[in-house]
Design brief:
Number of helices of chain B: 11
Number of domains of chain A: 4
Strand content of chain A: 5-15%
Shape of chain B: globular
Oligomer: heterodimer
CATH architecture of the largest domain in chain A: Orthogonal Bundle
Distance between the termini of chain B: 23 Å
Order of helices and strands of chain B: EEHEHEHEHHEEHEHEHEHHHEE
Distance between the termini of chain A: 70 Å
Number of helices of chain A: 29
Structural class of chain A: alpha/beta
CATH architecture of one domain in chain B: 3-Layer(aba) Sandwich
Chain lengths: ~850, ~400
């Protein structure tokens, strides 16, 4: 046999079933990679007892590391005493045991004899030196050794830092990078072998700077979190809540690495943890995992530690209105000028943490990263900032900020007195990111993006400030959609509406795109330039900021945020109604003029039917949220290609309505198909529940289980590869000689007995107080649509019959006072009404 | 007054241990196999009798479909190896099916049409869930409000009974804890030994490591339901499962169960012919209807009805097996009729021991017959509430 020329991971091994190891194994399983998870053998009972417990725990984690619960069944338990021989089949082994150099060294010696000769062996250390670690690795294998640093939680955090040791074969890094990007969907940054690598080095410094300045300005932790969260484009958990989530002991450990290994760093005096934090850790108050940390929850109240007294007080701190006003300014340069000029302690605090972070990043850029892009991307992908520190600096006005910083260094106001590096103030410098790439102080040039083949799959990669983007060539453009292509025969339609709401104008645009594709193109792809796929909301009704969360979540923030957003989806669906029905809806509704709304619903149904039956194949490329009408679009395309982090659901019931864009109809067709001539009721009942309880899928794989996606639909791990894969699917459909399916006829419906059976189920929910009378009415109407109306079981109907039922019941619900109350409350308060 | 031509005597009554459903020890044991087991075991307790003399086998089953469909009575008796001349029928009155079968069998003897009958019950709630595999309701139920309650789940009806009879959550949890306490005490003292015929469970599982079929068998002899870690405090922590602000929890409701029981009945002449002595005499049986939404109160109507029939008073009853569908309805019945709590379920009830729907009536008949004999008591009763709103009560005399 000749040597394999292409690196493939048929099987992977993960050593260490701690929090990170188990979750990395889970994510490998999410990506359909066979994985062995090793742990120490249990002292008694089943030798795999420890690892089985870890696998079982994965099912309980929030946010769930598993795309579906059953993924855990695909993690093979193993232990170091009995199963090391199985390592020889592993093409990739990731070590993720405790951060102890001696323990890791022992383990390496133990496993080395069992490794296959073509293995890539990578340590998931968060900060230990990869070169030091490599010394414990047999010399002949060192070329296949490197560091691969995942961020917690690894399913959701986009960043993976890839670190070579001196002997690492560059080719294996390229191989591993390809695997990490395409197979695991991660954003890879090549980091140098410096303590804590890039993201933690900068991110943790930023937190230390925040701690320092909070104390200087006398700001409470709750106030600091109010200031350093969404207001400045960072996760809502901001600084101290993030520390609680990460674990205060973990945070202290990462800080200690910096204390121990960076003695010459100008900021070394700040590499320590404050006394109050040490006290918390000594008390075992480690944050979320121990239910007490900087914050604690008492009953329903959140309390925050007061560092001056050591006691907890109610967490009520907020950003001052004057400062919020500054931060609302969309012009970054003006915003920074105002922060800098302000005498408000909160504004001065913010300026100080930005300034010292800029100072720190520019000083260390040469030693820690290949270019400024790597620092910014690492912070965005690893810490969830909307923009990296250099991007913010550049947007704020490079020279001006450099001047202010320099002045304040000279005035002794900064944390370190070290001067800014000369390149910062080089003549003509207006930033670090430009059309040619991002600046590297080492080469004194702008470094372009990686040219690895894997990145050709990213037609429009995550871009930095200053990087121009041109989405192909326009075919046509309206106020609501843009139809375009990338120089080939596949048409792409992207929505321009906020949150990619589907209004009448979007429907017109999609119909026009289908028409255009039928006449001139091989296929049509629906793809959005950024998530969500479609929230169904109308721009005009979306309150300021309310719609921003989904975008963040899709870039890899905590699932709790995603879940909150999913819950809030009902809210957006309320606006989605407006979106679906056009801006005149609200007025028309209140005036009781329902006819135009009914015409709009008809147009919606016409559009989804066109997506299904158009003569050219249609592909939905899905990322992020897809609710209500957005979900119905997906269900009607010939194929869906969805990123793993796609969250779909037919959530109309939240505002007292039912899916009327073909969603109910489509579920009926699927139930009948799946029953294959047998009893369709069990299938239909599951779909009924999905709609009646507004189930939102927690991953694309989960969407498949719930039935929003079909087995023929594809799941893509990397969101920036989505368009490329969707186009490939579209092309494959076209080249296979695509013909639309024949229109469904003779659909056997379950009829009146099945409606009664579903009703009996709901009667119990009603009697138990789980649903309201209006929920019951909505449920009965959904049942009526999905069972084909008050007809005998087995009656044969066509699609139009079901669509007419959808529309009729939608309109009837819309005419009820309680549905109108629900919609109105949603529009006005943003909170769902249970009536 | 006396309409019968002869008395019907119970000469044998036995049962399987009761397993938890759907993940208990009998999860892979078929209800027709369990039935065959108890038929054989019951007959084994009647040495010297001629099996051909069995006139009919009447089997109660509350969800007679799937594994317990196709007239499970006939299938079970054939599997048990009874002569194919012996007939069998499956009957269904939900939770009273088992004691209903006993009453029907007794009546054939009392009428003089038969001398030897077998009554039984079998139910695998692991294999055929409550409501069956494919429940389907009539649209007519929802065409007028009077009938909506037909569709109520049993838990909802228990909530309604709890409200109407003012049974508190605390009372229910106390009652449930007491059921477990009594059941464990009884099991520990060997009180169920007489009535249980141990079952040899055979399990066929793929052994993926060995690439072979692993056949494992083990004998089970005790009920799976009673929990030693049950306490009123523990029960108080459980959430209501049928209503948002309800009081009925998984802990104070009967358990879902698998099990079977058989009762051999004979006339006096048949007993003499085979030289057998009776455990007891069947005295009477009655059923009555109540509103479906408060089905749990059924015994309140059935108990006076049967006592009236047979001319006995409540005080004459030494032992009452009141099926604990829910603590709520049990307490409501006890309260409404003024039953003596000491006489009700002295060995624990369905909350601890389980409730294999259609088998329960026969299971508890076995408990009662052996219990009365051990404790040298005279009259006992098996009573229960029945879904869609009925109650049943059967009275037996120990001899």
């Amino acid at each position: 046999m000749s040597e394999i020329s292409r690196f493939v991971v048929r099987k992977a091994g993960v050593l260490g079933a701690g929090v990170m190891g188990a979750q990395i194994a889970a994510h490998l399983a999410n990506a359909n990679v066979e994985v062995l998870l090793f742990e120490l053998p249990a002292k008694e009972g089943n030798p795999n007892g420890n690892v089985l417990k870890a696998i079982d725990n994965l099912r309980k984690f929030e946010p769930s590391p598993l795309a579906t619960r059953s993924k855990a069944d695909h993690i093979c338990p193993a232990n170091y005493d009995h199963d090391l021989a199985q390592l020889k089949d592993c093409d990739l082994v990731i070590e993720a045991i405790s951060e102890r150099m001696d323990w890791k060294a022992d383990l390496y010696k133990k496993v080395a004899p069992f490794l296959g000769e073509n293995v890539i062996f990578a340590s998931n250390t968060s900060g230990l030196s990869i070169n030091k670690l490599s010394e414990s690795f047999p010399a002949q294998l060192r070329k296949r050794f490197c560091g691969v640093h995942f961020f917690n939680p690894p399913r959701y955090m986009h960043l993976v830092e890839l670190i070579a040791c001196n002997e690492t074969d560059p080719a294996i890094l390229d191989d591993l990078e390809k695997f990490l990007v395409t197979t695991l969907g991660k954003g890879v940054i090549r980091a140098k072998d410096t303590p804590n690598f890039i993201a933690n080095r900068v991110g943790v410094f930023s937190m230390l700077a925040t701690v320092h300045h909070a104390q200087q300005f006398g700001l409470g932790f709750d106030v600091v979190d109010a200031l350093t969260g969404a207001l400045i484009g960072r996760p809502k958990s901001a600084t101290f809540r993030t520390a609680d989530v990460v674990g205060l002991d973990t945070f202290a450990h990462v800080v200690k690495t910096m204390t121990d290994t960076l003695p010459d760093d100008p900021w070394h005096p700040y590499y320590g943890i404050p006394a109050w934090l040490k006290t918390l850790i000594d008390q075992g108050a480690l944050g979320q995992k121990t239910k007490r940390g900087i914050y604690q929850k008492v009953g329903r109240d959140i309390q925050v530690l007061d560092a001056s007294t050591g006691a907890y007080r109610p967490s009520t701190g907020a950003a001052d209105d004057a400062v919020v006003e500054i931060l609302k300014n969309k012009n970054t340069a003006e915003r920074f000028a105002q922060l800098h000029a302000s005498n408000h302690p909160q504004a001065r605090f913010l300026w100080a943490i930005f300034r010292d972070t800029f100072h720190y990043c520019s000083t260390h850029l040469a030693s820690i990263a290949a270019s400024a892009r790597d620092v910014d991307m690492a912070i965005r992908w690893g810490f969830g900032w909307d923009q990296g520190p250099f991007e913010i600096w550049q947007a704020a006005g490079w020279g001006q900020v450099a001047q202010w910083t320099s002045d304040e260094i000279n005035a002794g106001k900064t944390m370190s007195a070290v001067a800014l590096p000369p390149w910062v103030s080089a003549a003509g410098r207006s930033g670090v990111h430009g059309p040619l790439g991002s600046y590297s102080p080492v080469t004194n040039t702008d470094i372009a993006r990686s040219t690895l083949a894997v990145y050709k799959r990213q037609l429009f990669p995550d871009r930095l400030l200053g990087e121009p983007v041109q989405y192909g060539h326009t075919i046509f453009e309206t106020d609501a959609v843009r139809c375009w292509h990338t120089g080939d025969d596949i048409a792409i339609v992207s929505f321009k509406s906020k949150m990619h709401a589907i209004g009448g104008d979007v429907l017109d645009g999609v119909l026009q795109a289908i028409d255009e594709a039928e006449r001139n193109y091989a296929a049509l792809v629906i793809w959005q330039t950024e998530p969500p796929f479609s929230i169904g909301a109308n721009l005009k009704q979306t309150p300021v900021g309310g719609g921003e969360r989904p975008k963040k979540s899709a870039t890899g923030k905590w699932f709790s945020q995603i879940r909150r957003s999913a819950e809030a989806s009902i809210l957006k669906t309320a606006r989605g109604v407006d979106g679906i029905l056009g801006t005149q809806c609200a007025g028309a509704l209140m005036e009781g003029k329902l006819a135009p709304i009914e015409r709009m619903v008809e147009q919606f149904q016409h559009t989804t039917q066109q997506l299904r039956y158009s003569i050219t194949p249609t592909v939905a490329a899905v990322d992020g949220f897809a609710f209500g009408g957005g979900c119905e679009f997906i269900m009607h395309c010939d194929r869906a290609v969805a990123t793993l982090e796609s969250y779909m659901g037919l959530v109309e019931v939240g505002v007292g309505l039912l899916p009327a864009g073909g969603g109910c109809k489509e579920f009926v067709l699927r139930a009948v198909q799946e029953a294959k001539g047998g009893n369709a009721f069990p299938f239909l009942r599951r779909y009924f529940e999905a709609i009646a309880t507004a189930q939102v899928a927690r991953s694309a794989e989960h969407a498949r289980e719930l039935g929003y996606l079909r087995s023929s639909d594809r799941v893509v791990m990397h969101r920036f590869e989505l368009l490329s894969v969707a186009k490939a699917e579209a092309r494959a459909l076209a080249e296979a000689g695509y013909r639309p399916p024949l229109r469904a006829r003779n659909i056997p419906v379950l009829g009146r007995s099945a409606i009664a059976t579903i009703t009996a189920y709901m009667v119990n929910m009603l009697e138990g107080g789980y649903i309201s009378e209006h929920d019951y009415l909505i449920g009965r109407k959904i049942a009526d649509v999905m069972c084909g109306g008050d007809v005998e079981c087995g009656s044969l109907v066509d699609e139009q019959w079901l669509l007419d039922l959808e529309r009729r019941h939608f309109m009837e619900l819309l005419a009820t006072q309680k549905t109108q109350d629900r919609i109105e409350q949603m529009l006005q308060t943003g909170k769902p009404l249970r009536n | 007054m006396n309409k019968q031509v002869q008395d019907a005597y119970i000469v044998a009554a036995t049962r399987t241990p009761v397993g938890k459903a759907p993940r208990g020890m009998f999860r892979n044991t078929r209800p027709d196999d369990m039935l065959a087991h108890v038929l054989k075991a019951g007959l084994a307790q009647c040495p010297g009798m001629d099996y051909k003399s069995i006139d009919d086998v009447i089997v109660g089953c509350a969800m007679p479909e799937g594994e317990q469909g196709m007239n499970v009575a006939r299938i079970g008796l054939l599997i048990a190896g009874l002569p194919n001349t012996v007939s069998g029928m499956t009957i269904n009155r939900f939770c009273s099916s088992g004691v209903q079968a006993v009453a029907l069998a007794a009546d054939r003897i009392r009428l003089g049409e038969s001398d030897v009958m077998i009554a039984a019950g079998t139910e695998s709630m692991s294999m055929v869930p409550l409501g069956g595999n494919n429940p389907s309701f009539s649209p007519a139920m929802f065409e007028n409000n009077e009938n909506v309650a037909i569709g109520y789940g049993m838990g909802i009806t228990a909530e309604k009974v709890a409200t109407q009879w003012s049974v508190t959550r605390e009372q229910q949890d106390m009652f449930a804890a007491e059921s477990h306490r009594r059941a464990l005490h009884a099991a520990d003292s060997g009180e169920f030994k007489d009535e249980i015929t141990p079952y040899n469970i055979v399990d066929h599982a793929p052994d993926l490591a060995a690439r072979d079929i692993a056949i494992k068998s083990r004998s089970v002899a005790s009920d799976e339901g009673p929990r030693r870690d049950t306490s009123p405090e523990g029960l108080a922590k459980l959430r209501s499962v049928f209503a948002v602000k309800g009081s009925v929890t998984a802990g104070n409701s009967s358990q879902m169960s698998d099990g079977a029981a058989a009762v051999v009945l004979m006339s006096e002449s048949a007993m003499k012919r085979y030289g057998l002595s009776p455990l007891g005499r069947f005295v009477g049986y009655a059923v009555a209807g109540v509103p479906p939404e408060i089905m749990g109160i059924g015994p309140v109507k059935a108990i006076p009805k049967v006592l009236q029939q047979i001319g006995l008073r409540l005080d004459d009853m030494d032992w009452i097996e009141l099926n604990e569908a829910f603590a709520a309805q049990s307490l409501a019945v006890i309260k409404d009729l003024g039953l003596d709590p000491a006489k009700v379920n002295p060995l624990g009830g369905a909350i601890a021991l389980g409730h294999p729907l259609g088998a329960t009536g026969a299971v508890r008949t076995a408990t009662l017959m052996h219990g009365l004999r051990r404790r040298k008591k005279k009259y006992g009763m098996v009573t229960m509430c029945i879904g869609t709103g009925m109650g049943a009560a059967g009275v037996f005399e120990s001899l």
